[in-house]
Structures are given as structure tokens and as C-alpha cells.
């Protein structure tokens, strides 16, 4: 196999820090317990929020995508996951911010526009920010969603690999957002 010819399944995402990840995982477990039949929970290490799904690209395109990411100049921000949502067709139960700050939209828009300008795969549909919690969920949640604060100071590029134990996400680049005036709490 020539790695430079190999096809890599890639996406840009916001990646939760360890504390936020733990808080999201707790809500995933609480929700899972209320589902009428067995679900497929997202593993802790896989919890993420997709910015742009690129799909299968080659090594050269991956380098181009990394160069595009360098061009993004968006502000760091914080938001709150505070609402559960359900996509009935893929049976996905997810966690969403009910308010999406302008900086978040700006980051996604800059990235997607620059990908398009570079002739790379990009998202055609409008962005629906969400963190998938459960697959094979058969019911929307009626629980009140607790608020999880998430301070977003960077975005990442991830390669998604299908392995025996399930999908494994490997970050292959991270880019800071601007002016991260973020304290420790
Ligand atoms: P699996 O497909 O094995 O269940 P997964 O969905 O977590 O695992 P990927 O299919 O590689 O892993 O998807 C990576 C990310 O990209 C996920 O957030 C997924 O929702 C999103 N994604 C996948 N396919 C598309 C698509 N066609 N359009 C938009 N986003 C997609
Ligand atoms: Mg998938």
C-alpha cells in the first residue's frame, strides 16, 4: 500500500477538553439508561462536534486541508450544550448548544469557504452543531438537558479509521482560535 495514495476518511471538529468530555459522557450515560432498548453509546474518546466532514481524501488533499486550516482566523468562545436532539433516520441522540455564538459560526464558515476555494471537499448543507451521544436510540429524550459549559479554544482535523474495536479517531492537526482569554474555570 502506498500511503500517499491511500484514502483517508477525514473531518474537522471541535474536540472537548478532558473535563468537558467527562461532563458530556455523564449525560450520555444518564440518557442511555432511559432508552427503551439497547443503544450504541459513543465512546468517551470519540465524543466530538463535527465542523466539516471531508470524507475520503488522499494524502495530498490532507496536506492541502491542513494548509487551509492555517488560514482560519476565528475567535475563541464558550458555549453551553443544553439541549438534546434526535435525528430519527440514523437514530442518533445528540447534545446541542441552543445558542451558537457568532465566533462558532464564523470558524465553521471560514473553514468551509476556504476548503471550497481550495477545491477540496466541503459541506454543502447548513451546519447543525451537535455532539452525537447515542446511536441506535429509538426515542427522543424527554429529560431536561443539564447545561455543560464548553470553552472552545481550538479546532482539529481528524482521520477516522475503522478498526476491529470500532471507529478510531486520530487527530492529525490542531489550530488555536484567536485571543483565547480563557482562565482556568
Ligand atoms: P461509524 O460510521 O463507524 O458509526 P462515526 O460515524 O463516528 O462511526 P465517521 O463515519 O467517520 O465515524 O464520521 C465522522 C464524523 O463525521 C461524525 O461526526 C459523523 O457524524 C460525521 N459524518 C459522517 N458522514 C457524514 C456525512 N456524509 N456528512 C456529514 N457528516 C458526516
Ligand atoms: Mg458514520
Structural account:
This protein is of the alpha+beta class. It has one domain: Cyclic phosphodiesterase (Cyclic Phosphodiesterase, Chain: A, Alpha-Beta Complex), CATH 3.90.1140. Helices cover 24% and strands 36% of the residues. The protein contains three helices and nine strands; from the N terminus they run E-H-E-E-H-E-E-H-E-E-E-E. It has helices spanning 18-32, 59-71, 102-117, and strands spanning 8-14, 40-41, 49-57, 77-87, 92-97, 131-135, 148-152, 154-163, 166-176. The strands form two sheets. A five-stranded antiparallel β-sheet has the order 2-6-5-4-7, covered by helices on one side. Strands 3-1-8-9 form a four-stranded antiparallel β-sheet, covered by helices on one side. The chain is globular. The N and C termini lie far apart (47 Å). The mean pLDDT is 94. The protein binds adenosine-5'-triphosphate (ATP) and magnesium ion. The site of adenosine-5'-triphosphate has 7 residues, from strand 1 and strand 3.
Q: What key attributes describe this structure?
A:
alpha+beta, 185 residues, Cyclic Phosphodiesterase, Chain: A, binds magnesium ion, single chain, 3 helices
What is the topology?
Elements: E1 8-14, H1 18-32, E2 40-41, E3 49-57, H2 59-71, E4 77-87, E5 92-97, H3 102-117, E6 131-135, E7 148-152, E8 154-163, E9 166-176
Antiparallel strand pairs: 1-3, 1-8, 2-6, 4-5, 4-7, 5-6, 8-9
Helix pairs in contact: 2-3
The structure holds adenosine-5'-triphosphate and magnesium ion.
CATH fold field value = Cyclic Phosphodiesterase, Chain: A
Structural category: alpha+beta
Order of helices and strands: EHEEHEEHEEEE
Strand adjacency order, main sheet: 2-6-5-4-7
Ligands in the structure? adenosine-5'-triphosphate, magnesium ion
Write down how many β-strands occur, each being a DSSP E stretch of 2 or more residues: 9
* Cα radius of gyration in angstroms: 17 Å
Mean pLDDT: 94
Helical region count?
3
The CATH homologous superfamily is termed Cyclic phosphodiesterase
Q: How much β-strand is present in the residues?
A: 35-45%
Low-confidence stretches: none
Amino acid at each position: 500500500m502506498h500511503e500517499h495514495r491511500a484514502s483517508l476518511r477525514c473531518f474537522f471538529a471541535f474536540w472537548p477538553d478532558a473535563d468537558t468530555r467527562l461532563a458530556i459522557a455523564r449525560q450520555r450515560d444518564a440518557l442511555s439508561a432511559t432508552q427503551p432498548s439497547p443503544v450504541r453509546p459513543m465512546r468517551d474518546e470519540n465524543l466530538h462536534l463535527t465542523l466539516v466532514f471531508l470524507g475520503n481524501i488522499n494524502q495530498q488533499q490532507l496536506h492541502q486541508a491542513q494548509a487551509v486550516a492555517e488560514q482560519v482566523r476565528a475567535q475563541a468562545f464558550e458555549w453551553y450544550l443544553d439541549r438534546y436532539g434526535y435525528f430519527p433516520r440514523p437514530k442518533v441522540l445528540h447534545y446541542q448548544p441552543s445558542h451558537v455564538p457568532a465566533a462558532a459560526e464564523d470558524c465553521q464558515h471560514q473553514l468551509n469557504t476556504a476548503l471550497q476555494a481550495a477545491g477540496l471537499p466541503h459541506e454543502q448543507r447548513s451546519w447543525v452543531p451537535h455532539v452525537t451521544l447515542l446511536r441506535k436510540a429509538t426515542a427522543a429524550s424527554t429529560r431536561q438537558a443539564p447545561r455543560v459549559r464548553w470553552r472552545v479554544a481550538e479546532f482539529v482535523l481528524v482521520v477516522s479509521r475503522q478498526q476491529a474495536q470500532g471507529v478510531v479517531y486520530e487527530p492529525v492537526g490542531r489550530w488555536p482560535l484567536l485571543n483565547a482569554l480563557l482562565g482556568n474555570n
